[in-house]
Design goal:
Blueprint: H1 7-30, H2 37-50, E1 54-55, E2 68-71, E3 74-76, E4 91-96, E5 98-100, E6 103-104, E7 107-112, H3 118-136, H4 144-157, E8 161-162, E9 168-170, E10 177-181, E11 198-201, E12 204-206, E13 212-214, E14 221-223, E15 229-231, E16 234-239, E17 242-245
Antiparallel strand pairs: 1-5, 2-4, 3-14, 4-7, 5-6, 8-12, 9-10, 9-11, 11-16, 12-15, 13-14, 16-17
Helix pairs in contact: 1-2, 3-4
Bound molecules: magnesium ion.
């Protein structure tokens, strides 16, 4: 069931989105060679708590961290780990949300660690651009598939592949609400977008084959071919004035 937010709820979503975005910006400032993903996660948790909010991901479905931190070929759901130390040339996707007074924000960025190869610079740029192209279509009266198609077209035009097993989603009091927001066109056009919907749009893009595999513990999801991938996400409200990105610092 798609939950439409009223004006008061949208204001709460704006607060949660802002804290989520500030936490992600802060997390990005920590990214450098020598730091562990565990240390970044602890600092994210403290930052979110200092804003009188709670990390949305902590303990959700049993996830142990405050943020999903995924390095190199890991696309999503990376568990923060003391033994994963960043080094020059890595990429790191940080996916986090803040729950503020019962409402959630959700956002992700893939950051380069120091200098990365030109191939990777392009992958990150195209993936972020595809997110913005999807957001442009988050307009009342459009269908979910208009967002999906805009993301897919931009990534495929640039020679990348879309991961199909995981999608964006509605977001509100629950981190994951209806509807699903795929990053590719399916056989159905998906629900019509309406004012008051709040959705997380999140392209997950592989440099090589679209195939992904989960580690035996079910968490870290990697590119099957070991090539890099990228993940960018914003929480967006559909309003009378068009799409409003809620996860801006
Ligand atoms: Mg999400």
């Amino acid at each position: 069931m798609i939950i439409i937010k009223n004006d008061k709820e949208l204001d709460m979503m704006r607060e949660a989105g802002k804290i989520s975005a500030e936490a992600l910006e802060y997390a990005g400032s920590l990214v450098k060679p020598g730091i562990s993903t565990w240390e970044i996660d602890k600092k994210i948790e403290n930052f979110i708590l200092s804003k009188n909010a709670k990390p949305s991901f902590k303990n959700l479905y049993g996830f142990p961290g405050s943020a999903c931190i995924s390095v190199n070929d890991v696309l999503i759901h990376g568990i923060p780990d003391k033994n994963i130390i960043l080094k020059e040339g890595d990429i790191i996707s940080i996916d986090l949300g803040a729950n503020y007074r019962g409402y959630n924000g959700d956002n992700t960025k893939t950051f380069p660690v120091g200098e990365v190869s030109a191939d990777i610079v392009k992958l990150l740029k195209v993936t972020e651009e595809s997110l913005l192209k999807g957001i442009d279509k988050a307009v009342a009266g459009n269908r979910v598939s208009d967002i999906s198609g805009a993301v897919q077209d931009w990534c495929e035009k640039n020679g990348y592949s879309i991961v199909k097993e995981y999608t964006g989603h509605g977001v509100g009091k629950k981190l994951h609400e209806d509807p699903s927001i795929p990053n590719y066109r399916g056989h159905i056009r998906g629900p019509r977008l309406m004012c008051g919907m709040t959705i997380a749009i999140e392209p997950m893009v592989n440099m090589g084959s679209p195939k992904v595999v989960a580690d035996p513990d079910g968490w870290n999801v990697r590119s099957a071919d070991g090539l890099p991938n990228a993940h960018f996400e914003h929480t967006v409200a559909i309003t009378e004035n068009g799409p409003e990105i809620l996860t801006l610092p």
